[in-house]
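User: Round two. Same drill as before: sequence, then structure, for each protein.

Assistant: Same drill it is. First protein:
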Amino acid sequence: MSFSALNESIAGDMADLSWEKPKNLQKAKRSERYKFLVGGVLILLAVLYLLVSGTLQGARYFITVNDVVSDRAYLGKTVRISGAVDGETIDYDSENAIIRFEIVNIPGEFDDLASALRDALADAEAARLQIVVEDEAMPDLLQHEAQAILTGSLEADGIFHASELLLKCPSRFEETSPEGLSAIPEHSLAGSE
């Protein structure tokens, strides 16, 4: 077979081919669009669920001592609690790096944190909770009337075993309030000259 005969044979075969769209192609496109739409909606619903559940779970920054002591549902669960440190109960075992102390429930409504901590510790009826923090150096801010924010779990023995300890000591900043500043001579308006 010569080259020209081969070329004519190929050209003839190509002329027989038609370039028409298949009739079921429209149905296939609709089916694929539907699959992508359903998949996109499912992904969107999953993301929304994660956002809402995460927001609801973290809605409370911490739980009060009253909540933990009175509700046995918190037993064994990891929670974040807050309370006023009773300085008379602080015990540090430096050999084993274990800190033991008690916290007292802080009232929910207050204007001044330092006063709220002081009032909470003065209240003999306030709920108290024993705290144990292991493998921790003694923090400088762990003192009487400090606010302790702890992450850990309440065990069956009634002791809260903390894995994280954050302390705030508002009494150090008490004198920087407007009332406290007026007591400092250089900030007093009365004796300015």
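Second protein:
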Amino acid sequence: MRTVPMTVAALWLFAVVVPSAANAAAPRLKPGLWETTATSVMVGTPFSPPPQTGKTCLTEKQIAHPWAALQANKNQHCRFTHVEVHAHSASWRMECDGQGGHMIGTGTSKYPDPTHMQGMTHMTVNAGGEQMKIDVTTVGHWVRASCPK
């Protein structure tokens, strides 16, 4: 099974789980195996990487305590701020430092029901005196209750 890179997984977990756990009116996400596809566009360049599809196991514990999973991602040194949660959507701002660069990003997510999500993240990366803008569209759906061992 191919897994989603940690940065994408952390963003996805934040985009999907924090709104669900923080807002009683939001639909409860189904724990289990989720498949997500992240499509990145490198703004202003003719090149964009191919879409990345992976599977992530979302546990009841992660749904109940989303910050624990985000804080476990120490390698990215990310801070989430300006979090707004609404009935079926959320938005946030994040900053990450590491690997010789600085990244600022904003994102939104929508979760129309407990088995689907979609999100958009806009990032500006500054590294080595260069600046790059990246837009990432993420879609995900619940696959099944059981996760591979």
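The chain has three helices and seven strands.

User: Perfect.
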